[in-house]
């Protein structure tokens, strides 16, 4: 039985990760929820059943982290760290770690521990989740069908009714506010260039906008893809237009750098009675047996946040000494294995 510690378990994403670890691992996991708020953490542990315990962790207190990870097999970090303190301690204690932070500024800090992780025969997984995470896994599957890859488009169609945490909201706004770059050079502002791509089971064409996404740098380099573009948009044209105006006027930059981002909650209304379906499309243009072809892989999910939790929980089964070092999910496993472990009839992956 694996002992799995979840740091950030009381957040929206953290609670979903807790539930998915118990669902996917079943009786193979003993869950430990970590929180600096003792009563809140104990109540969460109690609500999750007999397979769950509570452990006090304060990220500003190194000793509390060391104590918490001492007897566990895997640590999932479902909140944001400025520095990879948890990763450093996990490697020292030979404990596998999975992190959902989507930014390369953090991932590059973790990569500095790669050789140490190899020596300790431990996995430290970075950029876990849906987008990034599953997106790179799907790119890996898609490009394997081609003898030569000419271009890859990776697009996420989001839902304005998504139940997202403050950190997730700010992270996505920060991503779309960045300029699109190539080889480290500015090319044009992000969220301005448009493209229509197929989404969903009916291959409905939707307009998305190009963004800078930190996952691209790693996927392009490690999979040898020279032309690659990341796109996103929401299921509401009005919402897309509002974001575009905020970006063009400079207000979006002010929003993502505000001191108290919790104020954003007043502008977000999640309606539990309505769906929050999201879609991921990977479209590849390339050559197969000398003939140029275009193929698309389209994934549908009831919730992007829930799928982030599902992917992260599934990776608990994949981590091990045979994949030691600082690694990305696509270096650890493949999309078919992850979806098999998730085993949800509500998630579909179609190839066109």
From TrEMBL:
InterPro entries: NAD(P)-bd_dom_sf, Sacchrp_dh_NADP-bd. It holds the Pfam family Sacchrp_dh_NADP. Signal peptide: none annotated. Residues 4-106 form the Saccharopine dehydrogenase NADP binding domain. The lineage of its organism: Bacteria, Bacillati, Bacillota, Bacilli, Bacillales. This is Saccharopine dehydrogenase NADP binding domain-containing protein.
């Amino acid at each position: 039985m694996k002992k799995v510690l979840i740091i950030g378990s009381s957040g929206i994403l953290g609670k979903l990760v807790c539930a998915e670890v118990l669902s996917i691992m079943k009786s193979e996991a003993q869950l430990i929820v970590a929180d600096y708020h003792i009563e809140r953490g104990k109540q969460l542990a109690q609500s999750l059943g007999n397979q769950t315990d509570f452990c006090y962790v304060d990220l500003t207190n190194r000793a509390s982290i060391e104590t918490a990870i001492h007897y566990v097999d895997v640590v999932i970090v479902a909140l944001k760290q400025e520095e990879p303190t948890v990763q450093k301690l996990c490697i020292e204690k030979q404990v596998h770690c999975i992190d959902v932070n989507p930014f390369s500024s953090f991932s590059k800090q973790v990569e500095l521990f790669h050789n140490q992780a190899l020596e300790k025969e431990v996995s430290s997984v970075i950029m876990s989740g849906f987008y990034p995470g599953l997106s790179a896994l799907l790119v890996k599957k898609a490009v394997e069908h081609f003898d030569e890859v000419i271009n890859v488009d990776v697009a996420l169609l989001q839902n304005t009714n998504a139940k997202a945490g403050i950190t997730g909201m700010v992270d996505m706004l920060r991503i779309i506010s960045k300029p699109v770059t190539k080889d480290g050079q500015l090319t044009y502002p992000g969220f301005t260039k448009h493209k229509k791509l197929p989404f969903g089971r009916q291959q409905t064409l939707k307009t998305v906008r190009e963004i800078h996404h930190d996952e691209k740098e790693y996927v392009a380099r490690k999979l040898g893809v020279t032309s690659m573009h990341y796109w996103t948009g929401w299921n509401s044209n009005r919402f897309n237009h509002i974001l575009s105006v905020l970006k063009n006027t400079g207000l979006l930059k002010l929003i993502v750098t505000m001191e108290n981002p919790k104020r954003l909650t007043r502008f977000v209304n999640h309606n539990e009675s309505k769906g929050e379906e999201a879609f991921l499309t990977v479209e590849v243009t390339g050559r197969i047996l000398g003939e140029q072809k275009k193929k698309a892989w389209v994934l549908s999910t009831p919730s992007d946040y829930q799928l982030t939790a599902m992917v992260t929980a599934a990776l608990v089964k994949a981590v091990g000494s045979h994949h030691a070092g600082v690694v990305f999910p696509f270096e650890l496993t493949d999309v078919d294995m992850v979806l098999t472990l998730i085993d949800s009839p509500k998630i579909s992956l179609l190839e066109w």
